[in-house]
Amino acid sequence: MEFSAEQIAQLLGGKVEGTGSVKVNNLSKIEEGKPNTLSFLANPKYNEHIYSTNASVVIVSNTFKVERALPETCTLIRVEDPYQSFAIILEQYNQLKNNKAGISKTAEIASTATVGSDCYMGDFVSIGENVKIGDRVKLHSGCSIDSEVAIGDDTTIYANSSVYSNCKIGRSCTIHAGVVIGSDGFGFAPNSENNYHKIPQIGNVVIEDHVEIGANTCVDRATLGSTVIRKGVKLDNLIQIAHNVEVGENTVIAAQTGIAGSTKIGANCMIGGQVGIVGHLKIADGVKIAAQSGVESTIEIEGEIVQGSPSYSIGSYKRSYVLFRSLPKIKSKIDELEKELKELKKGKQ
Hints:
The protein is an alpha/beta fold.
């Protein structure tokens, strides 16, 4: 689809400088701009590229000063915040790109399932008994939705994801390819024969509104009750959320993090990549956990920043790390002192 500079300016509440009728049909980085593409300039480090870019339209700040002649083919759109404006364009572009509709002939939908209006079901989608699907839901190819599942309006689930029975997914969620929601929690009890007896996991997973879950992430069902992902949570790729975990509103978690069973994460937390959190802990609201940290005790102070394995206050961690990096020098100094001490003892003898 093509859009003119004038149409884009109206969407963003911006002002056109140049040819308002110029059309664009794709997006590009300013340093790699091509004809008929839209780009943006928000970082002053990239100012130089605007004088040589081939992009047809560039979004710039109202305060951007043109210091020399721009390419004749370049039209500017001035806005208050170029980065935010470009984010709006990206969102619109993504919606248009993914604006699929209709139900594939190879999709299988149980007779007791309820499907809302304007939904998309890709090839080989499977929908089980008594499933309730809201309006404008998109299920891409190979998705498996088991019995008694509920999915809210405007949610998108990408290819080959699985939602096990009785799980609930809210409105306007995005679940990327290969995600598994509601698989069994890791519950086993040793028996007298030194084998492990599986403990049935009969709870479910509840995902609230506006949650995004990255590719190949797993959220296990509760043993009893629910594993809960609260409103606005953003999970990266390759994350493991164990049974009966609760993740608070608007918390963000980076890739390869694992959270063990029954741990409660507060709201507005930020958890870096490859963090490991043991089970049955409580993490206060607003806590930040640095990448590759290992959390083995409850964090009670709101807004605390921790690092290390085992993790502790980031200020103490940095002071300790300075000493750690100095250990070779300290070791050499100790060796010298021991040598001097031995020579002194020999002299006294």
